[in-house]
């Protein structure tokens, strides 16, 4: 059986903990699913539609800023519009928010503070307190895909980020099909999903860091399962 090809979009660095954890989490889930996957790291500089068409799923990796913001957003848009399973974690989550703001909500000038901190349309802003290395409690909305995947309405997850959804734009994010399905104890947005998509989920936390060979992370496992079945 040929391995299922998965694209990991980001600038791979072997010294960056979430990148090594991403490779390991895919291996954990692969062994649990008894399905072979081929995970290819692709720099955002090399993203093009013809290349994306050859993959069964796209994981938007932690580790922004990306070398090409426009190509990262193009990869997310391709997955969203073509029903290609997509999971974005940490920086990937932030860019899912940005792509959605620009291409669904119509804010062409929507920005991320890591690229343009003085923009008037900062959908992704710098956090008041860094979340790098922090583990926090999450609450999920009942009857959502993410809640079903976890089989729980609560979870503890680890973060590795300095940016998140700007609270000033939360109401605008709610105005379209993207659903806010997970928050932390302070009510901040931490998980989003598109309910009518085969799998389109963004998490500000890094589930890869919470995966082990004995207990593969359920989000990574479900992402790969859906990719293998589509």
What structural class should be given to the helix and strand makeup? alpha/beta
CATH architecture: 3-Layer(aba) Sandwich
CATH C-level class = Alpha Beta
CATH topology: Rossmann fold
Which bin fits the share of residues in helices? Answer: 25-40%
Strand line-up across the major sheet:
2-1-3-4-12-11-10-7-8
Runs with pLDDT <50, length 5+? none
Q: What is the average of the pLDDT values?
A: 96
Number of domains: 1
Main beta-sheet strand count, sense and barrel state = 9 strands, mixed
**Name given to the CATH homologous superfamily:** Class I glutamine amidotransferase (GATase) domain
What gross morphology would you assign? globular
Q: Would you write up a description of this structure?
A:
With 230 residues, the protein is of the alpha/beta class. A 9-stranded mixed β-sheet has the order 2-1-3-4-12-11-10-7-8, sandwiched between helices. The chain has a 3-stranded mixed β-sheet with strand order 5-6-9, covered by helices on one side. The longest helix has 17 residues. The chain is globular and about 50 Å long. The mean pLDDT is 96.
How do the strands and helices of this protein lay out in sequence?
Blueprint: E1 4-9, H1 17-33, E2 37-42, H2 49-52, E3 57-60, H3 69-81, E4 86-89, H4 91-103, E5 111-112, E6 122-126, E7 135-140, H5 145-150, E8 154-158, E9 163-165, H6 170-173, E10 179-184, E11 189-193, E12 200-203, H7 218-229
Parallel strand pairs: 1-2, 1-3, 3-4, 4-12, 5-6
Antiparallel strand pairs: 6-9, 7-8, 7-10, 10-11, 11-12
Helix pairs in contact: 1-7, 3-4
């Amino acid at each position: 059986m040929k391995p299922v090809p998965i694209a990991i979009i980001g600038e791979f660095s072997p010294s960056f903990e979430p990148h090594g954890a991403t490779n390991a989490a895919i291996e954990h889930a692969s062994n649990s699913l008894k399905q072979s996957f081929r995970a290819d790291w692709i720099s955002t500089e090399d993203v093009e539609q013809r290349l994306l068409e050859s993959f069964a799923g796209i994981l938007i990796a932690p580790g922004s800023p990306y070398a090409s913001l426009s190509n990262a957003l193009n990869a997310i848009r391709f997955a969203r519009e073509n029903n290609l399973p997509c999971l974005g974690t940490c920086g990937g989550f932030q860019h899912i928010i940005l792509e959605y703001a620009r291409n669904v909500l119509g804010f062409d000038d929507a920005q991320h503070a890591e690229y343009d901190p003085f923009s008037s349309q900062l959908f992704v802003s710098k956090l008041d307190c860094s979340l790098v290395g922090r583990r926090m409690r999450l609450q999920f909305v009942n009857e959502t895909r993410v809640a079903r995947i976890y089989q729980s309405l609560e979870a503890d997850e680890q973060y590795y980020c300095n940016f998140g959804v700007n609270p000033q734009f939360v109401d605008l994010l709610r105005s379209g099909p993207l659903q806010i399905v997970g928050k932390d104890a302070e009510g901040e947005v931490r998980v989003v999903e598109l309910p009518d998509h085969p799998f389109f989920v963004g998490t500000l936390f890094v589930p890869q860091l919470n995966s082990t060979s004995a207990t593969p992370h359920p989000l990574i496992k479900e992402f790969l399962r859906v990719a293998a079945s589509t």
